[in-house]
Amino acid sequence: MMLAAIDTTALWETVVASLVAGVGTTTIFSVAILGFVRASDATRSGRTVEAALFSVLALVGVIATAAAVVLAVVVMTTK
Amino acid sequence: MSEADLILGIVVFTALAFDFTNGFHDTANVVATSISTRAMTPQFAVGFAAALNFAGAFISLEVAATVAKDVVDAGAITTTVIFGGLVGAISWNLITWYFGLPSSSSHALIGGVVGATIVAAGSDAVFGDGLLSKVLIPAVIAPVLAFFVGGIAIVVAYRILARQRPGPVTRGFRYGQIVSGGLLSLAHGTNDAQKTMGVIMLALIANGTLASDADVPIWVVVSAASAIALGTYFGGWRIIKTMGTRIIKMDAAQGFSAQGAGAAVILTSSHFGFPLSTTQVIAGGVMGAGAGKRVSAVRWGVAGNIVMAWLLTLPASAVIGGLAYLAADALPGASGPVAIAAIGLGATALAFLNRARKGVPMPAQ
User: Fold this and answer.
1) Tens digits of per-residue pLDDT, B313-350?
2) Which residues on neighbouring strands pair with residue B126, listed in sequence order?
3) Looking at this predicted complex, what is its ipTM?
4) Least crowded by CB within 10 Å, which of B120, B131, B266, B343?
5) Chain A hits for B173, Cβ within 8 Å
6) If DSSP states are collapsed to H, E and C, what string results for chain A?
7) In this predicted model, what pLDDT tens digit does every residue of B177-223 receive, in sequence order?
8) What is the pTM of this model?
9) Does B318 touch chain A (CB under 8 A)?
């Protein structure tokens, strides 16, 4: 009887959403750092095209991370 | 002033004292990893967390289903029951602080209220379904989930950043921790200050001061936000040390992964309606980020003590809450709550003095 009170669908959605949000945010932020480090290395070695490409990668990572933070604040304010 | 108003005043004061201990006790959850990885200085970290906890309390002003509403019969709630529950929660918070153990303030509050309700109105006044689905199941799932999220996240981060220069990588994650720590502080302020507001509202309604459908008065919001922020600012360094350095020795990437896992689990769980403990979640994230690098990096003995504190939180705070209610109800009128509040203040002062004499450990600089 008591087990029937457990909302397994919501629990399952929580597990999936937490995995996607937690692992996803760390992944995109790691990609941003990778972009910055590789862009910096390429600039020092005079590889301008590679530096530009990695700078774009870093920028995309930062924007995606910022979007994740904004989404988190929206979730907080609308719950 | 009538006796009922005096008891109400003591309950409101006790609720704000609980809110203070909540901020004081839970500061570790949000700042320990940032401090131990040197993403922030201790003073900046607690000031930053205090400000965001204060702001977080204002983010959502609808009183979320209060801890008592889903777990106990609201008809059984009196101001003395709430007082007993708060005494149980504060006592357990201070006991675990004294021994430097992270434990859940939310579960201490629920345990205290459940214990006082059982003594006051019998076990039929406790909703078993609500206790299982709203408290016990999330209490088991949330830290385990944070453990796996933190563990997978750090493995992915190390894979992406393998063979990169460690200096800039560490600096990058330290900057990231300012954001992830800020999110955790905001989430903590929103979740936990709301619980205190809910308890004060229950007391005001039980006393007949407010109608059951009344809005939360602004003084309740401001005082709850201020109490949790002040508690955070005066943070519990003993628990910060346990969370930040004694479970695992963290690098900045692990700190970011642990905080990211904690924020993700707290926010998604709240979104889907599962109230949970920020303490349990972030500790799960910290252990996961440690185990993801190397299973033996986690000091499993310390982790075992934390698990033991979690297991004891509900029953221990329930027993203290029940006893506090019995004592408060045994004396006539307001003299019971007044006497217990005085004894509690004295015991708290003694515990602080004793700890101060032994020296309060600060986290590694």
Assistant:
1) 889 999 999 999 999 888 887 788 888 888 888 887 78
2) B72
3) 0.91
4) B343
5) 29, 33
6) CHHHHCCHHHHHHHHHHHHHHHHHHHHHHHHHHHHHHHHHHHHHCCCHHHHHHHHHHHHHHHHHHHHHHHHHHHHHHHC
7) 988 888 888 877 777 777 788 788 888 888 888 887 778 888 988 99
8) 0.80
9) no
